[in-house]
């Protein structure tokens, strides 16, 4: 399905995740974050960059893996993305919902 965000029409699935990563931009990510009541900081973007890099390298993501990444620990990850952190961060990053998320 299509939706318009940040003035751009993007393709999303029924849960609101982008289905075409090439449609992602920092502005799209920022607007998705605002919808989740998150104001992005440089620290948020560091985590998003890490998640996108892992996705591009086809590395499966999990909360545990992110906690062991050296980029962010689990406690801070939950502080940055309080509601369903991996699902929320993945949506903002423009990647599919990780298989480890229910």
Structure, explained:
- The protein is mainly α and 102 residues long.
- It has one domain (2-93).
- Helix content is 45%, strand content 8%.
- Strand 1 (2-5) and strand 2 (8-11) form a beta hairpin.
- Helix 1 (26-35) runs antiparallel to helix 5 and helix 2 (42-56) packs across helix 5 (85-93).
- The chain is globular and about 35 Å long.
- The two termini are 21 Å apart.
- The relative contact order is 0.18.
Biggest pleated sheet? 2 strands, antiparallel
Number of helical segments with 4 or more residues: 5
Which band does the percent of strand residues land in?
5-15%
Kindly state the number of beta strands: 2
The value of Rg in angstroms is 13 Å
What is the domain tally? 1
- The helix content, as a percent range, equals 40-55%
Q: Provide the spatial order of strands within the biggest beta sheet.
A: 1-2
Question: What overall geometry do the principal axes of the alpha carbons give?
Answer: globular
Q: What distance separates the N and C termini?
A: 21 Å
Indicate the mean pLDDT: 93
Low-confidence regions: none
How do the SSEs run, as a string of H and E? Answer: EEHHHHH
| SS class | mainly alpha
